[in-house]
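Annex B. Sample input.
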Amino acid sequence: MSDKEFNVPNGNQRRVLVTGTAGFIGFHLAKLLLAEGFRVHGFDGMTDYYDVALKRRRHGQLLQHPSFAATEGMLEDAALVDRVADDFQPDVIVHLAGQAGVRYSLENPRSYIDSNVVGTFNIMEAARRLEVQHLLMASTSSVYGANEDMPFVETEKADAQLTIYAATKKANESMGHSYAHLWNLPTTMFRFFTVYGTWGRPDLALYKFVDAILDGRPIDIYNHGEMYRDFTYVDDLVRGIRLLIDAAPERPNSRDDIPEWDSLSPVAPYRVVNIGNSDKVRLLDFVDAIEDALGQKAIRNYMEMQKGDVPATWANATLLQELTGYRPQTDFKDGIARFVAWFREYYGK
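Annex B, continued. Sample output.
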């Protein structure tokens, strides 16, 4: 079942079950939690959506820590999810695993239903049964879909998703709310905004751009570069998640108790939180910064907007700051420089 046997927890250690620990964000979150004294059990399917060797390198680093163990398996395997949860007895579950990628959802939509809907249901059932202190689950800025008022605020309606990926994540939010209401399960959904950084995913723009530029291959720039993203450095993102673990929502006594900036449900211990840098960056400026960090120009292939894509995303991070006193702040040029340094070392380029 596991890469490493379950450890008997130290009574003083809080136990966090993290799904997706061989993935980009889950790896960084697990590292942070371990550094802060948590006991972490990872759960990851090691799917071949991208380079499995990269995933195993991430897990290999985590497995060197005495407070980390992991299970390889699919979220859709309800019996395995239940067995892992029962053996580990987590205080908190952070659910990051799932089928990612907006563009891949155009090619293989069924994988998103299996992983993001069925798999998330299995995690929620385990959290309900074990009555965990806090269930935190990943959503995405893509749920804002066709919304045009920016920066995006959690309290605005988000009912016009443009891809099956975004639709499955909005379904997760609705599922999470219903479980929070029915079972009094404290639940926080976080909407991520264009995460990038070291140990990143090869399907993400920064990774693809750096790899192509170093190899002298052209890069595809959609909408002729007139796109804007709220680039959020991964270390900032996982710091936000870590702090939100300690900000479990409570069911309010009345609607009047909820501040206007809070997305807290009036009928459940449930909240949606943006985690973004609160600064929109033009794609062309992002590419310029990559060229500067590499000391090499890109061969630019300008293209039309891709189906299902949006011209801009931009987070209002007021709620995150109100709840935790923290907001992401890494400048995109600094973040790109860190990624380039890691990429060159990892691949010897």
